């Protein structure tokens, strides 16, 4: 897998105990904490949900070298499960999201089981086709309500304490979910498990010869990625109070690829940057007369042709302590 | 290490900055100094012709009657395309109300989207004037104190077309149904009406919204042997299914007949009389019925180049009534205006003595019509022969029948 | 009447099979193009659906803007789409051959977004009607169903194209180069054949097939910017099942899955949309390289 390898040098943000860096990290967190006072909270929540989705996707492509073109299935599948359990079963939002996450993980296990033996384009196409199957299931199963989607999902009260109907409460909950997901990814990348993934990405035969059962590692990464994507989808269902076909359409899979590629594959901050940019762009362009897909498509093409490291990747490569670039 | 951490954090901050600017670009201060009307519908897809820009034109005509000013403040009309996606529709509605100070949402064809928007407007206590969507649930179990269902609904269509077709001898039915809220409700309401009139149901097949190829569905309908193949769909789907039915010779044997349960004049215009002739339909409006309708429709035609559909005419009527209610109430907050609207009778070129029920249903006369043969038509847009007037009380369900929980209050 | 087959009235069974064959004709044409391109370029052409749509739109524009009818469109539209393909390959795709093949997929995905977005912006998403050519109007009563002449023509035309492509690849010199280049591009290059030009022409030919399918589809499915976007995923599944790069596999699987879909519509219509993907999953578990493919 050579695809993300140029990002290898930029696998970002290591070193603990760096006071200056911590300071800036804290500053970013502070900005996130006060952001809803300056900005439309629903917009911010959308950014955070997609940022988490992109981070989850990046865990797979950036750190294990697997391009999944079917992540919409996990995102949207979990959205449906969360919406259904919260609305129909009357579960609390945190349980609903948990169930959505678990469902996505289960789907990840199945998808991964089928696709993991193939690589590269094959892997991409197989995940794509499987996610399209989920799309058709969502179109036809009775509990998803076809084109209408699951509507009027109550936001409910978190842990029976916090009323999520209040926009700020909802925002801080979403922020907490995002930070949790981000922390899980950070931990994973910096764990021995993450190191093995990187080894597999760089040279799979070698990893095998070292005695690693690479398929297992890849499958585990896939399941983890699917679960986190599901967490993002479930949270989105609570924020927007509905789950629809848009979330499971293959275009959604493409969107997350775009966000990650644009931001920078294989960097921790890249997908966040990419997601924020794409969501902001879509929001901004919607008010103009420009055709959104054309602009997005053009950016995508430019990205593939000109700056494959993505925004974060390019910046980190430039300021990256003069580390060699792969 | 240090520098890279720094760069990472700086990036995150940068991103947030970017998000900040982009977010605020679409944010505008809330202005209570105007009445802002948001026309939300399908502007590019299969329902664009029945509502679309035409509904905005009609809403503007209503505003012009007030000199584009109300209580000394300007009336502003904005439009958006919901692309027939419930998530896009409800997001736009939410953003319009939260950020852009929109006071009322108009039209919203596609029942699925309308149901989603109704959730938002109910929650935010804003007026929602529905002309495009059909499902009777909007004034039934999904009703809202500030929601108004204006032009027609699935119940009226069932009573009109369903009953008439059974009376003509079409006593066995097969449904070709658009697979979402609207189609399901139209099928259910019509099936109930058919059974009541002594007909029987042979079966049904569901097709996705915006289907391009109906051949396999039509084949199923054909082999069902039912006398009536009922199209519980709308707009582009209806046009395509009628065309392909004629391609596959569905009605050729003479044993089967098509029933377009929801036909708009724009559909008939697109199909042409030679294909559409003799279809029976139920409508809330036809331009060529009396002088008042003709005069208004002429004005509409001069602006838009097409005759109004019942959705577009209804948009005019609803916006006009809404503005009159604001004038009478002196305020524009949702619940007050809603109460005022329900007090006042609706009298305009669209409806005579229309009255609004507690569940938001605007009750007015509907019409059963037959599409003319090419030989009967005097020219473009001379399409319908009105067979009978269906009194409002017969066409629409009562509050009790509707299942709206507001009714009790 | 002939009674029933497995409790199904024969007109429903044969009717749906015939309709399945018509759908299969489109699958076959599109997956043939994908397979040819993949064999030569090792690129999965995500823009294939968009180019199919473009073929339909070009013929619609030829008719409405220039009054050029169906039969000329059948020749012109694939050529125009093919030329567009040449431009695409020369300016964009060719820059990526040294990189991982996934970048080809990503690039063509971006192109698909742009092409579809542009047409959507210009013409909206509702279908534009394209009339059936005069000579092919009407239909035949086959006893079990009424077959519109035009749909019969689609099956015939697609069979002709698929078979002649197959013969061209198997019997002609160019085809021999192509097969050789598919097997081992480095070796072919070593024999002094201009592989880059062959690559360009192959891409052009592959997308021209998509354009041709678009013209054939226009009178049936109407002309809409979204007509290719869902179809392409099914075609991907077809290619995966057939075995990627296998031309015979792509064609046979295309028709076969069309028929199978038709059959599903008779016995369990709800599953007709997902049957292709289920088959794909099963095939992958048993034969990871696809039915006609080899492990590579």
From TrEMBL, chain A:
Gene Ontology CC: plasma membrane
GO MF term set: branched-chain amino acid transmembrane transporter activity
Primary site of residence: membrane
Protein's recorded name: Branched-chain amino acid ABC transporter permease
Subcellular location: Cell membrane
Record keywords, A-Z: Cell membrane, Membrane, Transmembrane, Transmembrane helix
Organism: Azospirillum cavernae
Membrane topology of the entry: Multi-pass membrane protein
Bilayer-spanning residue ranges: 20-40, 47-75, 95-114, 121-139, 170-189, 219-244, 256-280, 292-311
UniProtKB/TrEMBL annotation, chain B:
Keyword Transport tagged: yes
Gene3D superfamilies: 3.40.50.2300
Pfam family, one: Peripla_BP_6
CDD domains recorded: PBP1_SBP-like
Signal peptide interval: 1-27
SUPFAM superfamilies, per database record: Periplasmic binding protein-like I (SSF53822)
An example Gene Ontology biological process: amino acid transport
Domain Leucine-binding protein: 35-372
Transmembrane segments annotated in the record for this chain: none
UniProt keyword annotation of Transport present: yes
Keywords: Amino-acid transport, Signal, Transport
Family classification: Belongs to the leucine-binding protein family.
Entry protein name: ABC transporter substrate-binding protein
Species the sequence originates in: Azospirillum cavernae
């Amino acid at each position: 897998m050579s695809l993300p390898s140029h990002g290898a040098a930029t696998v970002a943000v290591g070193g603990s105990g760096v006071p200056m860096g911590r300071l800036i990290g804290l500053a970013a967190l502070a900005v996130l904490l006060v952001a809803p006072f300056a900005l439309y909270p629903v917009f911010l929540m959308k950014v955070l949900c997609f940022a988490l989705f992109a981070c989850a996707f990046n865990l797979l492509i950036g750190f294990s070298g697997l391009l999944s073109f079917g992540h919409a299935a996990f995102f949207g599948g979990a959205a449906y499960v969360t919406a259904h359990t919260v609305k129909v079963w009357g579960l609390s939002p945190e349980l609903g999201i948990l169930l959505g996450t678990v469902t996505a993980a289960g789907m990840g296990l199945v998808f991964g089981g089928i696709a993991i033996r193939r690589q590269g384009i094959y892997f991409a196409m197989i995940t794509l086709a499987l996610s399209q199957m989920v799309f058709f299931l969502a179109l036809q199963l009775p509990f998803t309500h076809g084109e209408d989607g699951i509507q009027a999902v109550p936001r409910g009260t978190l842990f029976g304490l916090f009323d999520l109907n209040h926009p700020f409460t909802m925002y801080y909950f979403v922020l907490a979910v995002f930070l949790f997901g981000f922390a899980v990814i950070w931990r994973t990348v910096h764990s021995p498990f993450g190191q093995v993934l990187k080894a597999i990405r760089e040279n799979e035969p070698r990893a095998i010869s070292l005695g690693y059962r690479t398929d297992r590692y890849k499958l585990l990464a896939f399941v983890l990625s699917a679960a986190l994507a599901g967490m993002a989808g479930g949270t989105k269902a609570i924020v927007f109070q509905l789950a629809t076909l848009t979330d499971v359409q293959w275009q959604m899979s493409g969107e997350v690829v775009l966000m990650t590629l644009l931001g920078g594959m294989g960097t921790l901050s890249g997908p966040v940057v990419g997601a924020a940019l794409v969501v902001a762009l879509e929001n901004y362009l919607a008010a103009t007369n420009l055709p959104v897909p054309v602009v997005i498509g053009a950016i995508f093409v430019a990205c593939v042709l000109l700056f494959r490291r993505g925004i974060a990747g390019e910046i980190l490569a430039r300021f990256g302590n003069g580390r060699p670039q792969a | 290490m240090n520098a890279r951490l720094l760069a990472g954090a700086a990036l995150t901050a940068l991103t947030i900055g970017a998000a900040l600017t982009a977010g605020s670009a679409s944010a505008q201060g809330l202005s209570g100094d105007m009445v802002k009307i948001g026309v939300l519908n399908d502007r590019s897809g299969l329902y664009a012709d029945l509502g679309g820009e035409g509904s905005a034109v009609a809403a503007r005509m209503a505003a012009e009657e007030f000199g584009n000013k109300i209580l000394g403040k300007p009336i502003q009309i904005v439009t958006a395309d919901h692309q027939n996606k419930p998530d896009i529709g409800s997001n736009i509605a939410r953003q319009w109300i939260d950020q852009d100070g929109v006071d009322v949402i108009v039209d919203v064809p596609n029942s699925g989207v309308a149901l989603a928007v109704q959730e938002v407007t109910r929650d935010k206590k804003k007026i929602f004037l529905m002309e495009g969507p059909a499902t009777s649930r909007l004034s039934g179990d999904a009703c809202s104190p500030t929601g108004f269902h204006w032009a027609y609904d699935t119940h009226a269509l069932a009573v009109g077309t369903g009953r008439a077709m059974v009376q003509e001898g079409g006593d066995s039915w097969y449904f070709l149904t658009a697979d979402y809220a609207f189609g399901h409700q139209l099928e259910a309401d019509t099936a109930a009406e058919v059974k009541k009139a002594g007909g029987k149901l042979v079966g049904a097949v569901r097709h996705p919204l915006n289907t391009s190829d109906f051949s396999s569905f039509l084949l199923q309908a054909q082999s069902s042997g039912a006398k009536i193949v009922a199209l519980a769909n709308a707009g582009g789907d209806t046009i395509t299914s009628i065309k392909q039915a004629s391609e596959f010779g569905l009605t050729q044997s003479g044993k089967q007949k098509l029933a377009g349960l929801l036909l708009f004049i724009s559909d008939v215009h697109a199909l042409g009389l030679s294909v559409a002739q003799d279809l029976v339909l139920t409508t809330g409006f036809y331009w060529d019925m009396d002088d008042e309708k003709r005069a208004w429709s002429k004005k509409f035609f001069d602006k838009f180049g097409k005759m109004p559909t019942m959705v577009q005419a209804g948009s005019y009527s609803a916006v006009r009534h809404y503005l009159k209610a604001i004038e009478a109430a002196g305020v524009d907050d949702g619940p007050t205006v809603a109460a005022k609207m329900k007090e006042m009778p609706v009298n305009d070129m669209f409806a005579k003595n229309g009255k609004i029920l507690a569940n938001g249903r605007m009750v007015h006369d509907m019409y059963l019509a037959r599409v003319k043969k090419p030989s009967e038509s005097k020219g473009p847009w001379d399409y319908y022969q009105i067979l009978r007037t269906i009194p409002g009380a017969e066409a629409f369900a009562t509050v009790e029948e509707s299942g709206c929980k507001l009714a009790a209050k | 009447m002939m009674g029933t087959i497995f409790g199904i009235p024969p007109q429903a069974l044969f009717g749906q099979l015939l309709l399945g064959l018509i759908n299969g004709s489109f699958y076959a044409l599109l997956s043939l193009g994908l397979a040819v391109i993949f064999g030569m370029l090792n690129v999965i052409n995500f823009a294939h659906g968009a180019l199919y749509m473009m073929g339909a739109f070009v013929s619609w524009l030829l008719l409405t803007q220039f009054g050029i009818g169906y039969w000329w469109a059948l020749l012109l539209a694939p050529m125009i789409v093919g030329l567009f393909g040449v431009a695409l390959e020369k300016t964009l795709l060719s820059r990526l051959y040294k990189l991982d093949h996934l970048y080809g997929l990503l690039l063509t995905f971006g192109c698909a977004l742009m092409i579809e977005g542009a047409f959507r912006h210009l013409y909206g998403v509702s279908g534009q009607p394209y009339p059936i050519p005069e000579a092919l109007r009407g239909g035949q009563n086959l006893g079990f169903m009424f077959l519109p002449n035009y749909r019969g023509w689609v099956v015939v035309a697609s069979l002709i194209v698929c078979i002649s492509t197959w013969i061209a690849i198997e019997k002609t010199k160019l085809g021999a180069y192509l097969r050789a280049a598919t097997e081992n591009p480095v070796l072919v290059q070593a024999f002094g054949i201009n592989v880059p030009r062959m690559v360009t022409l192959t891409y052009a030919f592959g997308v021209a097939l998509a354009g041709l399918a678009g013209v054939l589809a226009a009178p049936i499915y109407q002309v809409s910017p979204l007509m290719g976007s869902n179809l392409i995923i099914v075609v991907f599944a077809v290619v995966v099942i057939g075995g990627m790069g296998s031309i015979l596999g792509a064609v046979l699987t295309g028709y076969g899955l069309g028929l199978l879909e038709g059959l599903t519509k008779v016995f369990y219509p709800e599953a007709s949309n997902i049957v292709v993907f289920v088959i794909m999953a099963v095939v992958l578990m048993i034969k990871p390289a696809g039915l006609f493919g080899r492990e590579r």
